[in-house]
């Protein structure tokens, strides 16, 4: 590996080479077993004597940091070298960031009911490898359009037009790195410091935190059986973030009457509605209602979607459809953020959609998720300690806990999420959020039996991830 070495002046050159190579080894930039450039080559690059480089190498060999192999070259010693940490420093982040803890890694569990994670075993990985390999061999070797790969934008506009009745052409689609970046771009373009953003309560915590990080004052608005309570939205709100197709985390769809009321409110208040349609492809029963975007006649809805739930989280491809008045600013924000999303993956996804593979995968996955949904829904309904929230779509179910019921943890064995985690207002609502994307159908009965055995009617305790 070529290591950057910068020489100052013409004195003590061997010592300068020695110190900079030593720093690279101690910092972990040069790892154990890596081959260094030959002395002649490094001397040529640095425009110094080969003997000078050889002297530095010899000293590192003598100190045990390098080892020479006859006929092979010079290598970093196989002895592990502990990397040095960056300076502690005195620079602090803004107050908001001092109070936000990194999302902890969730340990694996035998019975994994975590929400929002699709089953990787259902994904046609061999087909995906073929498509990605084809694009890599094609050799896309230039920067792309910040709005996204043209064929993918065309494919997305057709897909959401057919499957969700979203009104959008290719030029209306902006490809992002997951739905979270879509929300970030919208926030960058629309949120002024101190602006009020209304979110569902309970709701999606990463969206709430993101808007706060951009300087917004975030206000939770209650959700009932019909969706967000429009009458409770603050008059000063400039943005309303909702998940109308499958409310996250309760799972209920927003009624048509409530959708109409929200759009009328947004037009009166000159506000923007962000519609996050994160997993509505997986629908098991009721006919889907029209998205807010297709009902909107005033150009106040921004539609956000993602393939992370439909396919695999690791793909990190999302998109947004915004009114034409916002498109130039959002495209510029995307370019300033990361220029564009990764091109071979975009091109592969375009082929995946155009060849009918996405529709086939959704049909197959929906059948499997529907069977898991039924198993869990029937078990929740049969337990009088739980009050299931009606849901007919997505990758999770929610049930409220009866008063006084608590859940004992089972680390490493049982994993689920509590409704409290999704609440930003006090008092937090109590309940369980059970996903069925990770856990297989055959493991669900035993996992639910274990969950019921951990529930009691004792003192209330938080039912966090276990």
TrEMBL record:
In the C-terminal section; belongs to the class-I pyridoxal-phosphate-dependent aminotransferase family. Transmembrane segments: none annotated. PROSITE patterns: HTH_GNTR. This is GntR family transcriptional regulator. It comes from Nonomuraea aridisoli. Keywords: DNA-binding, Pyridoxal phosphate, Transcription, Transcription regulation. It holds the Pfam family GntR. One of its GO terms (molecular function) is DNA binding. Residues 11-79 form the HTH gntR-type domain. InterPro entries: Aminotransferase_I/II_large, HTH_trans_reg/aminotransferase, PyrdxlP-dep_Trfase, PyrdxlP-dep_Trfase_major, Tscrpt_reg_HTH_GntR, WH-like_DNA-bd_sf, WH_DNA-bd_sf.
